[in-house]
TrEMBL record:
CDD domains from the UniProt entry: Maf (cd00555)
Protein source organism: Methylovulum psychrotolerans
Keyword field: Cytoplasm, Hydrolase, Nucleotide metabolism
Site description Important for substrate specificity, residues in chain: R13, T72, Q153
Example of a GO biological process term: nucleotide metabolic process
InterPro entries found in the cross-reference section: ITPase-like_fam (IPR029001), Maf-like (IPR003697)
KW Cytoplasm (keyword) present: yes
Name the record gives this protein: dTTP/UTP pyrophosphatase
Active site: D71 (proton acceptor)
GO CC entries: cytoplasm
Entries under Gene3D superfamilies matching the protein: 3.90.950.10
Amino acid sequence: MTAALILASASPRRRELLDQIGIRYRVCPVDIDETPRPDEAPLAYVQRVAAEKSAAAVLRFGTDIPVLAADTSVVLDGEIMGKPQDQAHALAMLRRLSGTTHQVYTAVSLRGLRHGEAVSISAVTFRPLAEAELLAYWASGEPRDKAGAYAIQGQGGVFVAALNGSFSGVVGLPIFETAQLLAAQGIKVF
Ligand SMILES: Cc1cn([C@H]2C[C@H](O)[C@@H](COP(=O)(O)OP(=O)(O)OP(=O)(O)O)O2)c(=O)[nH]c1=O
């Protein structure tokens, strides 16, 4: 089967979400520096990083088919939370998310004949978390490679009292916005 696009991502979640809408793709991950710039706003940051991932893949793998990339950040009080560096960092992030509402920003970048971009912003409310739960959650291994140190699609889902927005966007690839970008470049789900 021929691929409709290149997925410039190492994230298994992004593969699963493309599988969910039946789009065929070839996985070509890229490694870019994801350090936020000084005073960079969360929206500008996720858009820049998603665009840099797709641009890096176009440079490396060519442009015979469109290239899709995304970037997800957890944002609390305007502050960007990326992936945890270690246990202490993960626990510190989860303690701050406990009992409050944060945003999850996911930017999508699709480079074909032109550059299509979209952003999904969702509000996620955590119930208060007990210290023992946080330690057990870290020990499960799930927080390690996740922005904000949790996965709504995994055991971390039990922390989520409310979601206002896009479940797939929180997981890492908003399928509504992605399908719209793909359709604009002639790649249709139906
Ligand atoms: C908040 C949240 C994030 N995540 C994941 C999605 C992303 O994989 C990760 C955020 O890191 P990203 O830098 O967006 O993506 P990545 O490094 O995993 O993959 P790539 O850059 O190669 O595309 O956090 C979840 O799986 N569930 C969640 O609930």
